Amino acid sequence: MRDRQKTLTTVIRVFGAFVTPIVSIGAMLGAMKTTTNCSSFSEVAFKFRITPALRAGGLGFAALMGAAGGLPPARRAARIPMTRALREIREI
Questions:
Q1: What is the sign of the dihedral through the CA atoms of 30, 31, 34 and 38?
Q2: pTM for this structure?
Q3: pLDDT by residue (tens digit) across 40-65?
Q4: 58: Cβ–Cβ under 8 A, 6 or more apart, which residues?
């Protein structure tokens, strides 16, 4: 049984060693092809620009989402006695 596991592990490792570079190169070539097409319709028609107002809005939205996701668990954790919280920790 142990020999079969070693064989299977070796086959998966070799397969991954050959497939990973091929897929990675394909992804890079695909990304280069799509990003170097500067005369596409969306670029010509809309002329996307990231302005300081858009950056500020994005940072504000990210801060709001972080607070909305982080404050409720933090408030709950702050109200639990420390000994109870330590007892309830589960090992992963």
A1: negative
A2: 0.41
A3: 555 556 667 788 999 999 999 999 99
A4: none
